[in-house]
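Researcher: We plan to redesign the surface later, but first we want a full-length starting point. Tokens attached.
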């Protein structure tokens, strides 16, 4: 499957206005941001911005050059989808009548979601996972009636290296 997006992990100084400058850079150049998530890192001086942009309309080399010109940008990494772990969070309130409530509850279990609020005619569901999993779940919920839906946007980290230690044969004394 061909890559349809670029995922950038941008470490920036945790200061007011930095996110606006980064988003403004994309806007001025006409690059559409598909997903944007930002939060402080383990070091309170820095925040990580995960930006997902359309691969067809956004020349990644030009974007990174422009981002590096921003004074508060510390580090930029492009995360190859095959070499990254991507997750997203969804909260959804679904209309449920007594006849369909058990079906929705079962579907939430199959997708490893969690019911976080219950009303007389609706359920609020939380689901975290790969963006494609959330897309599939959203499609299955649509016939029941989505009252409200919010997704966080992708967060991503590079996959860890997996060097498996080689096993060596050890001959012991018998007897």
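Model: Full-length starting sequence:
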């Amino acid at each position: 499957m061909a890559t349809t997006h670029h995922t950038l992990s941008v470490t920036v100084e945790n200061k007011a206005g930095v996110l606006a400058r980064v988003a403004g850079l994309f806007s001025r150049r006409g690059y559409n941001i598909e997903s944007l998530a930002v939060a402080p890192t383990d070091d309170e001086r820095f925040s990580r911005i995960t930006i997902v942009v359309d691969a067809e309309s956004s020349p990644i080399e030009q974007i990174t050059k422009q981002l590096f010109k921003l004074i508060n940008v510390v580090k930029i990494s492009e995360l190859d989808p095959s070499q990254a772990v991507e997750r997203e969070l969804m909260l959804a309130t679904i209309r449920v009548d007594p006849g369909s409530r058990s079906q929705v509850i079962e579907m939430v279990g199959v997708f490893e979601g969690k019911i976080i609020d219950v009303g007389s005619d609706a359920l609020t569901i939380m689901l975290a996972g790969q963006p494609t999993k959330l897309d599939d779940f959203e499609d299955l919920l649509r016939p029941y009636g989505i009252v409200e839906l919010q997704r966080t946007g992708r967060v991503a980290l590079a996959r860890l290296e997996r060097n498996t230690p080689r096993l060596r044969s050890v001959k012991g004394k018998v007897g």
